Amino acid sequence: MIEAMLTSMLRERLDEGSVDVCSSGFGPVGLPPIDEAVEAMRRRGLDVSSHRSSATTRELVESADLILTAERQHVVKIAALSPDAFRQAMTLPEFLDAAASSSSSSDKSDGVGSWVRSLTEQRTASAYLREPVPEVADPTGSASRVFEAAVVTIEQQCREVVALLVGQVYRSG
User: Fold this and answer.
1) What is the CATH number of the domain that holds 156?
2) Residue 118 domain flag
3) How much is the CA Rg of the chain, to the nearest whole Å?
4) So what's the pLDDT on residue 40?
5) Residue 61 and residue 67: Cα distance in Å, rounded?
6) Domain span holding position 89
7) Is the residue at 173 inside a domain?
8) Which of 112, 126, 154, 168 could join 65 via S-S bond, C-beta 3.0 to 4.6 A?
9) Do residues 78 and 100 make contact, with C-beta atoms less than 8 angstroms apart?
10) Phi/psi zone of residue 36: left (φ > 0), alpha (ψ -120 to 50 degrees), beta?
């Protein structure tokens, strides 16, 4: 759902091809989305019915400027695949918190990756494992009202990510 929302929102704001968004995971490969996710995305004008789960690979994470995950354990697994990717990987709400509290003077013209790494430059792996990290609430298996409320939260967080990327990183001029 996060990938579908980010892709759609970024396409509305940026030139075609200026950013690639992809989805991957750590579970079984080839699974379709759950019916509730398909329906939630359909209500937002997005068709995810043909999506199939794919594996997170070392090559994929090493090619990314920003890796947004739902859960802390995903960030940990990404760091296990590629220790260098730890600097680009954050949970969705963690990224929003880091960007909001950043006083980074990193030159945004250096690109997304440089800016993202500046947001995590003080983060250590040991502290990351010990301290609380905000995560995306997984609505799978929830009652329909609870599922929709979680999707609304995810959608709002995706809007905030897009605003940050477009306004601070991809601005022209």
Assistant:
1) 3.40.50.2300
2) yes
3) 16
4) 95
5) 7
6) 2-165
7) no
8) 112
9) no
10) alpha
Does residue 121 fall inside a structural domain? yes
* Assigned domain for 52 exists: yes
Tens-binned pLDDT, residue by residue, of the chain (173 aa): 999 999 999 988 887 767 889 999 999 999 999 999 999 999 999 999 999 999 999 999 999 999 999 999 999 999 999 999 999 999 999 999 999 987 654 555 567 888 899 999 999 999 999 999 999 988 899 999 999 999 999 999 999 999 998 876 665 44
Token pair in block for residue 151: 């999707």
Q: What is the pTM of this model?
A: 0.89
Domain count, the chain: 1
Residue 18 phi, psi dihedral angles, 5° rounding:
-80, -15
